[in-house]
Amino acid sequence: MTEHRVLVVDDDLQILRALRINLAAHGYHVLLAPDGAAALRAAADGHPDVVVLDLGLPDMDGVEVIEGLRGWSTVPIIVLSARTGAPETIRALDAGADDYVTKPFGMAELLARLRAAVRRAAVSSVDGEPVVDAGDFRVDLAAKKVVRADGTELHLTPTEWGVLELLVRHRGKLVGQRELLRAVWGPNYGTETNYLRVYLAQLRRKLEPEPSRPKHLITEPGMGYRFEV
């Protein structure tokens, strides 16, 4: 089995030690960083497969770390924070985080979130998937990439791709909120509709000619979403 590299960013040395021991015991190669600057250096030098990030860091806000990583990397980011409430969650997700876990947390849950994040980021080796042409852009399901009509490739995070891929594979059909959450985030999800609002808004900003008047990523209020070409 491939050993996945996890970068853990937290200023609490006890949490760093506990996560290093537990994650290593489950087969992960663990990188540690006690602050934001060290996290950005470790990400650049260590090329982790997933980042577990606390928001309350001594030198910068964790959201700044997310934004710094998103400037050059699509690595999955799981926020692990004592900050609770929808505004904090949405702020982190909107900056580019893929998931949000509140402290205190269960190790089994965190491990499940890590496995889901790694799965989402994995590149499929299956050939023969179609290319869906929406006019303004093309979605290559095999290569897992999106290209504008002018040839410019768009960079999506693993979670953004997960949402788009599911909608594209069911193009023209309604995908329910619960189905979308469980397919992309995992079976323990189903009510976190704020995640969907954030990610659909991000996708519309990247894909739609007029994000406020979407013609490809359609919301069916109270039910779900639909992809139209």
Describe this structure in words.
With about 230 residues, the chain is an alpha/beta fold. It contains eight helices and twelve strands. The chain has helices at about 15-25, 35-45, 60-70, 85-95, 105-120, 160-170, 175-185, 195-205, and strands spanning about 5-10, 30-35, 50-55, 75-80, 100, 130-135, 135-140, 145-150, 155, 175, 215-220, 225. The protein starts with a strand and ends with a strand.
Search tags:
alpha/beta, 8 helices, 41% helix, five-stranded parallel beta sheet, globular, DNA-binding, 229 residues
* Quaternary structure type: single chain
Poorly predicted regions are: 123-128
- Count up the helices: 8
Tell me, rounded to a whole number, the average pLDDT: 89
Secondary-structure element order, as H and E? EHEHEHEHEHEEEEHEHHEE
End-to-end separation: 39 Å
Q: Compute the gyration radius: what is it? A: 18 Å
Report on the biggest sheet.
Answer: 5 strands, parallel
- Estimate the global geometry from the Cα principal axes: globular
> Helix share of residues?
40-55%
Sheet/helix structural class: alpha/beta
Number of strands: 12
The neighbouring-strand order within the major sheet is: 2-1-3-4-5
**Fraction in beta strands:** 15-25%
Protein name: Response regulator
Domain Response regulatory: 5-118
Domain OmpR/PhoB-type: 129-229
Modified residues (4-aspartylphosphate): 54
Secondary structure: elements and pairs:
Layout: E1 5-9, H1 13-25, E2 29-33, H2 36-46, E3 50-53, H3 62-70, E4 77-81, H4 86-95, E5 99-102, H5 107-121, E6 131-133, E7 137-140, E8 145-148, E9 153-154, H6 158-169, E10 175-176, H7 177-184, H8 193-207, E11 217-220, E12 224-227
Parallel strand pairs: 1-2, 1-3, 3-4, 4-5
Antiparallel strand pairs: 6-7, 7-8, 8-9, 10-12, 11-12
Helix pairs in contact: 2-3, 4-8, 6-8
